[in-house]
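> forwarded from #structure-qc
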């Protein structure tokens, strides 16, 4: 049985489409669990479930707005499935994504699988271009790492894991990374299903880009305090960035895109300076580090 867990906050305009895209991809016994703190998103989710006539397999949980890790822990307690699929309320699945995500679990040693986030933003502007470039770079890294059998992080936009009765630290900034390390440290394999696509909106302003990346990339530095990161499994470091120095130039297709690729370098340097300032100097706690990214909604 599958348990599909959708965490969603203030997303009444997208939660219905997210639920519908998931439902149309279900081929086996499954339940859909939506967990949200706000009335508007819960009402929109329930309306879509009624429209699809899937109330028997649909469960809603009202969380107390204590952050995504707390919400996931509540959902983990209720989930009945052997396999859990985790996603967000502003993400839409390709129709074959669930089937593709579950295929690698035929190997009993596989503990987690991630799909491929795909940008739905236009490449005609700089921020839209960055969404496509960075998501393609992540795809390239996962393919390369998978062939080596090394560690790589699962994507929080679209992942499937065996039901390990997880209990996440409630101050963790990168819940997807924590889950990835938890599974890998159990001696289980991580797999990648690139045909399992999740369509995602990325930040449309540089300000929102910095907010998102400082939180997500900075969350990897926080993981060291939990003792789950080993020297051989460190990822998303500044050194890792340098290894992909040429990728933006190879990805660019015209003069305008080459120019935007060049601009990405100082932007990423500023991002790492902000991460160092927030995590090492200011030592911001979870509530101050988490901010909603409005332009991705």
């Amino acid at each position: 049985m599958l348990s599909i867990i959708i965490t969603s906050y203030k997303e009444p305009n997208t939660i219905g489409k997210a639920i519908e895209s998931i439902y149309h991809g279900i081929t086996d016994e499954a339940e859909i669990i939506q967990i949200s703190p706000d009335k508007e998103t819960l009402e929109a989710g329930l309306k879509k479930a009624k429209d699809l006539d899937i109330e028997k397999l649909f469960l809603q949980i009202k969380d107390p707005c204590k952050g995504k890790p707390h919400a996931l822990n509540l959902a983990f307690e209720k989930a009945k499935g052997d396999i859990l699929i985790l996603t967000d309320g502003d993400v839409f699945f390709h129709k074959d994504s669930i089937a593709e995500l579950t295929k690698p679990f035929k190997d009993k040693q596989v503990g987690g699988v991630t799909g491929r986030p795909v940008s739905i933003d236009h490449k005609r502007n700089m921020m839209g271009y960055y969404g496509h470039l960075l998501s393609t770079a992540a795809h390239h890294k996962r393919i390369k790492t998978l062939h080596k059998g090394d560690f790589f992080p699962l994507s929080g936009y679209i992942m499937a894991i065996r039901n390990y009765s997880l209990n996440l630290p409630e101050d963790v900034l990168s819940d997807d990374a924590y889950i990835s390390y938890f599974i890998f440290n159990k001696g289980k394999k991580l797999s990648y299903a690139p045909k399992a696509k999740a369509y995602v909106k990325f930040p449309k302003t540089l300000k929102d880009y910095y907010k998102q990346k400082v939180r997500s990339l900075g969350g990897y530095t926080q993981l060291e305090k939990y003792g789950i990161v080993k020297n051989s499994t460190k990822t998303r470091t500044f050194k890792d960035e340098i290894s992909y120095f040429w990728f933006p130039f190879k990805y660019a297709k015209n003069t305008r895109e080459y120019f935007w690729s060049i601009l990405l370098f100082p932007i990423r340097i500023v991002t790492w300076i902000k991460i160092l300032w927030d995590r090492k100097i200011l030592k911001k706690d979870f509530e101050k580090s988490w901010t909603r990214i409005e332009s991705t909604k």
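QC bot note: Residues 167 and 297 are 28 Å apart (CA to CA). The longest strand covers residues 189-200.
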